[in-house]
Amino acid sequence: MLESKGFRLSRTKFEYLVCKFRDVLDETDVEVRLATQIIPKKENFKYLGSVIQGSGDIDDDVTHRIGVAWRKWRLASGVFCDKKIAPKLKGKFYRVVVRPALLYEAECWPVNNAHVQKMHIAEMRMLRWMCEHTRSDKFRNEVIWEKVGVASVVDKLREARLRWFGHVKRRCADAPVRRCEGLAMKGTRRGRGKPKKYWGEVIRQDFDQLHITEDMTLDRKEWRSRIKVEG
Hints:
Blueprint: E1 16-17, E2 33-34, E3 37-38, E4 41-42, E5 44-47, E6 50-53, H1 59-75, H2 77-80, H3 87-97, H4 99-102, H5 113-130, H6 141-148, H7 153-170, H8 199-210, H9 220-227
Parallel strand pairs: 1-4
Antiparallel strand pairs: 2-3, 5-6
Helix pairs in contact: 1-5, 5-6, 7-9
């Protein structure tokens, strides 16, 4: 059907992914074919730099982003491991080169504690290496952050999430993403099995932690000042 519309499909690379938008078990095996060729089914695939899982989880995407951040860090290791460069300057370079790779599209992640901990551990390993310290030196995380002038990735992740929430709330009524408005305040129904973490739940936790409310998003300057994290 697609080829009849003018699309050219690679029969050797063509794959498909089934996304489960509801917690409903479907045991029916469906065989997808392109003419006589059986198309292989994938559990995840990479799209525009993100790893999409059919289950709706973000475990693979978080792991992928950490790996990309480490590759960026290693490419710039000549700067990060240079003893002649001041830690604050290394921190500025880290904020420009490494952290954007680590937090790419993270504002839409429904993160749980395990995801946050993995990102935190990865970042602290990078920063300690930059400061020529190891965990055996027993320097507190706050000391490392202060030395390089970098805020915690956990705080920056929350800032990115709330900044995106503010953008969504301030969009005009006919914008395509307007349906997301009020997502943080709505309840969610869960199916059987292990409960999933939803983005709206993460936003509610952010609200409680910062003591902010949804109506504050209408004042952009006030909202930015309340969620801003220096470093």
